[in-house]
Amino acid sequence: MVSSATLGFLAWALLTQRQVAGQSTCERLKRSLTYTQEEAPRDLSGVLPVVVGRVNQVLEGVVNVEVGYHGDDLQGRVGEHLVKCEVTRLASVLPDDLKTQAHVDDMGRNVVTQCFEVPFTILDTNECKLPLHHPLRHQCQAPSICVNTNGSYDCVCPRIESSGTYPSDTVDDEFWVKLQAEERTPWELAYNSSSRTSCPSSPSTHGCCSERTNSKDAMACRSNFHCPKDPCKGANDCASSSTCVRESSPNARKTYSCRCPEGLMGNGQSCRPGIDPKPQPKVRFDGVTPTEETIKNNYYCDCTAPVVDACCGFPPCKGKHEVCIVTAANVPQCGCKPGYVMHETYGCVDESPPVMKLRHDLNGDQTLRLKQGDVYEEYAVDIQDENAEEYMRSLKIAYSRPLPHGCLTKVGEFHVNYTIATPWTTPAFLRLTRRVVIEDIDEC
Fold it and tell me: Which pLDDT score, from 0 to 100, does residue 239 have?
């Protein structure tokens, strides 16, 4: 409702009563001029012709009308108001008892000056119902609700926890008493910081913003009154599979969360194409605790049924080369890591046998060529064996003929066999043979 101070309607003062033409009181014109706040004259230039026109309608011989004005918009207040004015009339149209008060004006006319009161009636305008862009329309910012009062209006924060409406017509003082007595959550009060709202932590602007509704201060106060918006009723980033849940206070850094239904896992937020990875939430073998990878990815977007990573969190296996493996029934247990097989005696062993490579095999043909008179030197083999550290090994070197002391004198060849025992394989050994050739030399 437009207040006495904020209506653009002229605020003109009641003139200090003085003795005019022998009168001790002013004569009041019959029939009040009636306006709504919306229709009322806005300033002195608007009210002056109204008053003068009214005077000329009911009085004869009017030559001058003076209306007093001191800047207070008394007429803007809803109710009955009087505007006092001095009216100068020709003495010739007045009764004889008033002609004795005549004087000559600056135009040489015999005139009499009288005091008159022009009654005004200002009716309430419901600013809450005025159309958009109307100059008197309310300044309440959504989601606050405009509530009309007699001569003004106020902005009220809506109820969130319970459904309720506010009167569309003018409210009385009892309405505000009940409003102040209501128990409200922080979501149903203005924000708690003056940097975010006027009237912080208040349910309305009533008693906080000036009733002079159209004054600059009052307009700024109401337009800066901000109630929290329910994040779960407007746009938010919760996926359709999740439920938006408000936090306990709108003054928190995060005002809502997206919660997944029981049995599903995720952060509940809508997946962003090209940004978020495909949701693949996993839980540890207990079926409840999320894996580190899942936590690292913020539980993934949306809400998805988690996959049980049966080996995640499973107690470490004690055997060498044993790791957690998952059975067809998705049950974790200890077993050999890939590339190893379980041996009854030796446990997890490399399913591939050791690899032997002859040293000093210059031509790659496993043949060592010597001359008569050379000394045989044992170069042995290089062995690559994953299991060498865990299990006792034996490397046997066998010669097809005894080696002589010193130089080789007999032309011919013999063989050297290198054998490694691999009891978990069939056959239970690995053998590599070197051919040694002693060539003749021409003693001549």
Answer: 96
Spatial distance between the Cα atoms of 415 and 368, rounded to a whole number of angstroms: 10
What predicted TM-score, i.e. pTM, was given to this entire model? Answer: 0.61
Query: Which residue in 60, 65, 66 sits closest to 92, CA to CA?
Result: 60
Task: List the structure tokens of 336.
Answer: 């050999």
On whether the CB atoms of residues 201 and 250 are closer than 8 A, the answer is no
- SS3 for 97? helix
Contact 301, 317 (CB under 8 A): no
Q: Which two tokens stand for residue 91?
A: 């003495």
How many beta carbons lie within 10 A of that of residue 173, not counting itself? 10
Question: In terms of Cα–Cα distance, which of 122, 126, 173 is closest to 147?
Answer: 126
- Burial readout 269-288 (b: 16 or more C-beta within 10 A, e: otherwise): bbbeeeebeebebbbbbeee
Report pLDDT digits (tens) over 112-146: 999 988 888 889 889 999 999 988 899 999 999 99
Helix or strand holding residue 370 (H, E): strand 367-371
Residue 218 parent element (H or E): helix 216-223
Task: Please state, in angstroms and rounded to a whole number, the distance separating the CA atoms of residues 153 and 319.
Answer: 81
Residue 47 CA to residue 64 CA, distance in Å, equals 16
List Cα–Cα distances, 342 to 94, 326, 337, 348, 351, in angstroms: 133, 16, 10, 4, 9
Cβ pair 151, 134 in contact under 8 A = no
Question: In angstroms, rounded to a whole number, what is the distance separating the alpha carbons of residues 70 and 81?
Answer: 15
